Amino acid sequence: MATQTLLSFKAGRSFRREGSSFVDASPVKGSLELLRGDDELLHLLWKNRATGQVEDDLIIFPMEAQFLKVPHTAGRTYVLKFSSSNQRHFFWMQDLSDSRDAEYATHVNGYLADPEYDPSTAAGPASSSQQAGPSAPPAPSTAPAGVTEDQLAELRALVSQVSQEQTLSQPGQSYSSARICFYTKRVSEDLSLSDVLTPSNLRPLFSNPRLLTAVFPHLPPDLPVPPSAESIQRIIESPQFQAGVRSLDQALATGLLSGLVKSLGLPEEAGLGVGPFLTAISRQAEHDHHDESGQDSMQTD
Amino acid sequence: MSDEESGWHITESDPGVFTELLKTLGVPLIVDDLYSLDPSTLASLQPLHALIFLFKWVAPADSSEASVDYDDAFEGFFANQVVNNACATLAVLNGVCNIPGVGMGSELRGLVDFTTGMDPQTRGLAITSSEFLREAHNSLSPPSALSLADLDLGPRDKEDAYHFIVYTPVNGVLYELDGLKRSPVRHGVFPSTGEGWVALARDVIQKRIETYPPGSLHFNLQAIRTDPLPGLRRELEALQAGGHVNLAQQILRQISAEEDKRQRWAFENSLRRHNPLGLIHALLLGLAKAGGLEAATTGAKEKMKERIAKAREEAAKGKK
Q: Of the candidates B268, B272, B297, which has its C-beta nearest A196's C-beta?
């Protein structure tokens, strides 16, 4: 089996009491793990640390979900939020200290956006769509005799969790079976730009400053951050951009975009589908290259 | 009037979108996601003016109409939903326009004044005909050059089916404002001490949730509240002036978390307003020039084959 563990850290869950609107913080010690399964898909698991059992196994497609800190709460609660549905899964950090919380969240989001994510290149905790405030771990108080620091911290976390977690329910869910977050409407039998425009595929572009600068004029004019490889990557990982790419995929699948593609300097046949669109862009790149090289006096088509 | 004819675009039901709408309307309040109605969470969000309960319209709850306490003589602001795509903006207006002394820009003030004394249906029509309001609403969806509606690609998914209900106190009574009902619904008086109206709202919302079969209701909650930043900043100044370092640190963390969230909203809103076609093309062109398009396309073809194979497998097995 080619399963590869990408990330693992201590975390508990909160889940809905059946038939009511309350969500209970479960005191069970667990861990949140990200794996690349033998199906090549990203799995987000919650494992019970006492029994070693995997109790939640979610398969998550790239850029479908984000791991966000829940504001307005005293505990270290995070929510796994899906961009195209109402699914919410709540977790709370169980490490003794909160000093690595933001780091874990950054890595989770990195993998959720791109399974090829490389944590060693992470920009740091205060990036993209997270609620990261300045993190200073609280000074641990002296443990009473017979209680370890670990136990004391978990007890504190438990108490603050239980008192704040009367969260309203999210869709009733069975937590014991693996669930594929699969949008049958979007299963495209055609090539998909969403698979082309991934952060890892775009690395050759990100590492070429001259070419990257040519992209800047096409960024939103009111983007609140300066243009850079990092901000472009953040855009690519955003639900809004992803929705735009899916729209274009669907639009190209109709084969009716000949008019629209002309505005991009492409020939009519580029509007016939995703494949022709990419081929035309490839040709456009060669053409521009010949134009730019200047030395060559030969005319190209 | 159909959604297409109305000129109102579909928008996301996101706090960042609503907060930006309020800003355009000149209302100095914000909207936040609400994950919990427990007392401490709600206390941390005060002053709180209205709760928005938004849910997917699945099998309707079995509610007996006879027991609903309609206030047909309601004197506040209530508009019926006349255009589906406008439902979110309508809910925000029903929530905001009943807040005593709420600030608003001159266009919204004019609209509210114009509709004074109208019945809910007429007011709904007037609201929907407001060019100013429609433009404010549409400003957070992509320019129509790449609109699905133009290409007639069939029904979109979840956003269509959302319904919004606002809970807000008016003159000591908790009201439920549902644009699809004929009038606001009374849910009783509430104590002026302690948690006040939010405790009653919590009970009402919980009871409502319980009327649905477990698992059938997909919902979200949001809160319309006073922007906490000005108050936090004043508090910070005072604490710093008084030399209270630790408390100042705490406030600074809150301010920082709030500003991070606003920056995320501003980032997402700038993307919402932006037509991505030029950017997508520029990225692909740049990738081609960098020599990476071929490899990316090959990878994408592999993924396509996997999708097709999986879809066929699923179809053969039959979905559980």
A: B297
**Could you list the mean pLDDT of each consecutive 10-residue stretch along chain B, which spans 320 residues?**
71 91 96 90 92 76 70 94 90 96 95 94 94 91 56 45 89 95 94 90 89 76 95 95 92 94 95 91 96 95 88 73
DSSP string, B221-278: EEEEEE-HHHHHHHHHHHHHHTT-HHHHHHHHHHHHHHHHHHHHHHHHHHHHTS-THH
Q: Name the β-bridge partners of A152.
A: none
Answer with the one of B162, B192, B226 that is the final residue of a domain.
B226
Residue B285 and residue A284: Cβ atoms within 8 Å? Answer: yes
Minimum Cα–Cα distance from B315: chain A residue? A184
| Domain identity same for B116 and B67 | yes
Residue of chain B whose Cα is closest to the Cα of A185: B157
- B285 to A126: CB separation less than 8 angstroms, yes or no: no
| CB-count burial class (<10 Å; 0-12, 13-18, 19+) for A141 | exposed
Whether A219 sits inside 8 A of B268 (CB atoms) is no
Distance, in Å, from the CA atom of A177 to the CA atom of A169, rounded to the nearest integer, reads: 19
Shared domain for B116 and B256, answered yes or no, is no
CATH topology of domain A193-293: uronate isomerase, domain 2, chain A (1.10.2020)
Q: Identify the CATH number of the domain in which residue B177 sits.
A: 3.40.532.10
Closest B-chain CA to A288: B289
Contact flag A166-B45 (C-beta cutoff 8 Å): no
Question: By the 8 A CB rule, do B215 and A173 touch?
Answer: yes
Residues of A in contact with B273 (CB under 8 A): 220, 222
CATH of domain A4-113: 2.30.29.70
Q: Look up residue B196 and give its two tokens.
A: 């006040």
Amino acid at position A174, single letter: S
pLDDT at A147 over 50: no
Strand-pair partners of A57 = A45
* CB of A247 closer than 8 Å to CB of B146: yes
DSSP string, A7-71: EEEEEEEEEEPTTSS-EEEP---EEEEEEE-TTS-EEEEEEETTT--EEEEEEE-TTSEEEEE-T
Query: According to CATH, where is 2.30.29.70 located in chain A?
Result: 4-113
Give ranges for CATH 1.10.2020 in chain A.
193-293
Domain around B28: 3-226
Contacts of A188 in chain B (CB under 8 A): 304, 307
**Number of structural domains, chain B?**
3
pLDDT of A134 strictly over 60: no
Q: Which residues of B are catalytic?
A: 87, 163
Q: Are B35 and A254 within 8 A, CB to CB? A: no
Q: Which long-range contacts (CB under 8 A, 24 or more apart) does B247-254 make?
A: B249/A136, B252/A134, B253/A133, B253/A134, B254/A133, B254/B228
| Whole-number Å distance between alpha carbons of A81 and A183 | 16
Residues of B in contact with A205 (CB under 8 A): 283, 286-287, 290, 292
